[in-house]
Design goal:
The protein is mainly alpha-helical and about 200 residues long. About 55% of the residues lie in helices and about 10% in strands.
Length: about 200
């Protein structure tokens, strides 16, 4: 066995941000000695702490769930190209980043409190990446897949369901684009750990 090769030891911390947490001992109210994790890394806080920033964070959190609702609605009704695989597959694939981004809204700084590095990555960055994936997939469906279906099938009659389908695709893409613009427009900066207590 190569001594330089690292091996996994059961119980060893393998989290990406594990080095930012330390175990500390404390005595509870009953006099028992216990251990807890304490965050020792830098805190990530929004530069703007006014009412506008609070509205932006809350709007983004709500939009993540609206995007997921729109993507689910796209799967539930029938339209002209619903049986076409190259229209259905991108929308079905978009459900995964849509759900992933919606789960990221749980860790958003709803009251503009400081975030640990892992919470920042699992909220703001996760939502931005998920929204980008949704934007690409729904945009490709509306702008490429749907016209290709019309050309191949020769069906140029747009019924109410077909128009609603395109509106929902554009709505999901628009909400995703808006989330990216809002979160990327907010400035976050790191502050030393000593400034805040977890």
């Amino acid at each position: 066995m190569n001594p330089e090769k690292k091996t996994w030891i059961p119980g060893e911390k393998t989290m990406k941000f594990a080095e930012m947490y330390q175990t500390e001992s404390y005595v509870d109210e009953h006099g028992r000695k216990k251990a807890r994790l304490r965050y020792t890394g830098p805190w990530t806080v929004p530069l703007d702490t006014g009412g506008t920033a609070l509205v932006r964070i809350r709007a983004c959190g709500i939009c993540t769930w609206l995007i997921l609702a729109v993507l689910i609605a796209l799967q539930l009704f029938r339209h002209a190209s619903s049986g076409c695989w190259y229209t259905a597959v991108p929308l079905l694939t978009a459900l995964f980043p849509g759900a992933y981004g919606a789960l990221g809204s749980i860790d958003l700084p709803w009251r503009l409190k400081p975030l640990t590095q892992d919470r920042y990555m699992h909220s703001v960055i996760r939502i931005c990446r998920s929204s980008l994936a949704v934007l690409i997939l729904t945009g490709v469906t509306a702008l490429i897949c749907e016209p290709v279906y019309r050309i191949v099938s020769g069906d140029w009659i747009f019924l109410r369901e077909d128009i609603l389908f395109l509106i929902l695709c554009v709505t999901a893409a628009g909400l995703a684009f808006g989330e990216i613009r809002v979160l990327r427009g907010m400035e976050f900066h790191d502050v030393p750990n000593e400034r805040y207590r977890d």
